[in-house]
Amino acid sequence: MDFLPILSNTASSILSPATIGYALAALGLAVHFGYAGLINMGIAGFMAIGAYGYAISILTFGLPWWAGALIGLAAAAVFALILGIPTLRLRGDYLAIVTIAAAEVVRLLFLTTAFDSVTGSADGLSGYHESFRSANPIPAGSYGFGPWTYNETDWWVRIMGLVTLGIAVLVVFMLMRSPWGRVLKGIREDEDAVRSLGKNVFSYKLQALVLGGVLAAAGGIVYALPSAVSPGVYVTSLTFFVWTALLLGGAATVFGPLLGSLIFWVLQTFLANILPALVDAGVLPFMSSIQAGTVRFILVGVALMLLVIFMPQGLLGNKKELTFVR
Predict the structure, then answer these.
(1) Which residues pair with 125 in a beta bridge?
(2) Would you call 251 helix, strand, or coil by DSSP?
(3) Nearest CA to 97 among 111, 87, 112?
(4) What digits encode the pLDDT tens for the residues 207-238?
(5) Taking each helix axis from N to C terminus, what angle separates 236-249 and 256-280, rounded to the nearest 10 degrees?
(6) First to last CA, the chain
(7) pTM for the model
(8) Which end of the chain is more exposed for a tag (fewer CB within 10 A), N or C?
(9) H or E, element range at 135
């Protein structure tokens, strides 16, 4: 068994658009759950709206890539308002049920054949890259070293993703250290106490939902930049993966979602390569290569349960700080 390609593929995932997209989505979820105490189980819906809003703006309306990105973010903000106004008075499990149902409704709307000419239905959307790639200032060629050698298009995607992530981290970092952020943390701990001080708890929750939704939509756009938009990506398991990344790094932190997403995708890539290789080498003779590739999702589920039970604060979280809703 040749370990070099396995390690090379694993290392390359550190700078992959998927890792950056997950980090943005997990950061948005940190705003929802870690700071505002909102159990949002529909983060995949926000990512889908961002990606589809970006692609549809370019393919259907002929807008440039930057305008498409802005529309994708604006669509996520509108979706957050539509979702939040009637539901944010719900608490705990009830909000989780509503959000996971809303995300599934969004996915089915993009999947239905009624809007096939716009959304592509089951085929999804592709071919929206020309505007983005034409804005690339990097000369043609391959750059980097080792597993981090990419052509000009791949670097352009990664650079824009990292710039977006950096801006998002800075915005959340500053907001959570502002009076607005302190009120949000107070709502997470005891919203009745905050309400007794004259604060509009519903308004703060709605603002947090919009902010986190926009960040998740940015993650969906980055995730879709190098390839295509497919409704099969934005399923419920995507939400669980983002939750795993968030809880791994630390829910009530700014940099925890970044670390959690990095570790999550490195492990995912490593397992996706090592398990089939072990089957081919005869180490796992009781399963096929396809089955071995699926085992990693079982391991993710087990890891999520263990995280919630034994380390809910995550790697960077403070054990004294509440990271789960009472």
Answers:
(1) 229
(2) coil
(3) 87
(4) 999 999 999 999 999 999 998 999 999 999 99
(5) 120
(6) 48
(7) 0.94
(8) C
(9) none
DSSP for 99-128, written as a single string: HHHHHHHHHHHHHSGGGHHHH-GGG-B---
CB atoms within 10 A of CB 224: 27
Specify whether the CB–CB gap between 242 and 48 falls below 8 A: no
- Between CA 287 and CA 238 the distance in angstroms is 25
How far is 43 from 27, CA to CA, in rounded Å? 11
Question: Do residues 21 and 292 make contact, with C-beta atoms less than 8 angstroms apart?
Answer: no
Span 34-64, pLDDT tens digits: 999 999 999 999 999 999 999 999 999 999 9
Q: Would you give the DSSP letter of residue 136? A: -
3 state SS of 8: helix
Distance CA 153, CA 133 (A): 7
At residue 322 the predicted structure's pLDDT band, cuts being 50, 70 and 90, is: very low
Give the Cα separation of 57 and 221 in Å (integer).
12
Dihedral (Cα; 201, 202, 208, 213), 10-degree rounding: 170
Cβ-based burial of 276 (10 A; exposed 0-12, middle 13-18, buried ≥19):
buried
